[in-house]
Amino acid sequence: SPMSASSSSTGDVLTVDQLGNVQRWDIEFEEATAVRHCENPTAPSKPLLNCPPRVVWDPHAGGDAAAVTGPRSTVRIFDWRSDQSIHMGTVEKFAAHQSAT
Predict the structure, then answer these.
(1) Is 39 helix (H, G, I), strand (E, B) or coil?
(2) Contacts of 85 (CB under 8 A, 6+ apart)
(3) How far apart are CA 38 and CA 15, in angstroms?
(4) Are 80 and 66 in contact (CB under 8 A)?
(5) Alpha helices, DSSP H only, in the chain?
(6) Starting from the edge strand earliest in sequence, which strands make up the sheet with 31-36, in order?
(7) Where are the domains of the chain?
(8) Contact (CB, 8 A) for 59 and 50
(9) DSSP for residue 88
(10) What is the CATH number of domain 12-95?
(11) Structure confidence at residue 49 (pLDDT)
(12) One pLDDT digit (tens) per residue for the chain, 101 residues
């Protein structure tokens, strides 16, 4: 299926929208190859992220995972290899720390 996760390549790019939905795109085929959602399980119509989300992804060092910022300085790690039926497609959630410098 076109939405199944595949190993990353130099032709992939990630996008993240205001709700925190992350899509991995194959530039060559111009289609999304994987999608993960940061939906709010208690109020699906309300954004889970109360600030503009940011995503970090290094396809060369760890192409199977991406980090997305969330509310209250949290970070969610998405694993593209995970079963899409797993709630929110996340494998970890932790508090981020700011440097004093």
Answers:
(1) coil
(2) none
(3) 13
(4) yes
(5) 59-62
(6) 12-16, 22-26, 31-36
(7) 12-95
(8) no
(9) G
(10) 2.40.10
(11) 52
(12) 344 445 555 567 777 777 677 888 887 887 878 887 766 556 656 655 555 667 777 777 767 777 777 665 666 777 777 655 444 444 445 555 555 55
